WxL domain-containing protein (Nesterenkonia lutea), 184 residues
Amino acid sequence: MRTSVKTVTVGSLLAASMFITPAALAAESTATATVTGGSLSASAEDVALAAVTTSHAAQTTSGTVNLAVDDSTGTGDGWSVTQVVSDFGYTDGGNAGDAIAAEHFVVSSVGTVSALAGADGAETVDVGTAGSLGTERTVLSAAAENGEGSYTVPLSVDLNIPEGSRAGAYAAVLTTTTAATPAL
């Protein structure tokens, strides 16, 4: 009897071991990703101001400068955009016209900022105030934690033409500069 008991016991242990699965072996690894920051840029489209007729009185011609800003830096530092214009030099017409001073080119109003790619709707972008672009002027700004993404805004501009300006073409250079620091 003893022998059969041992056989039954060994047989029972063998049967039970078939239903027990060995412990799973686990290993851990790390997944990493890097996000590289891009650049901060701004650009302004060329503007052709409406033609005016020579006059013995000062007059104004108007136009729109479309400004585009893109903050792809991924820093959230905020930024500012400034503009300044050179004198409007006499370039064509054969009438020996004098330059029109840069101080006569002014932002008369700033339109509504349109958020494009990457702007989540919670971002705040501040517009500058009207005034002469004869000296550097902040036209758009975003405080820290704002302004990430792409934006456009129309700037209404006027050129105040002095009385007696000669017939011909005048041209100036409008310089648009970005800085990774809010200025407004």
In short: Confidence is low (pLDDT under 50) at residues 1-5.
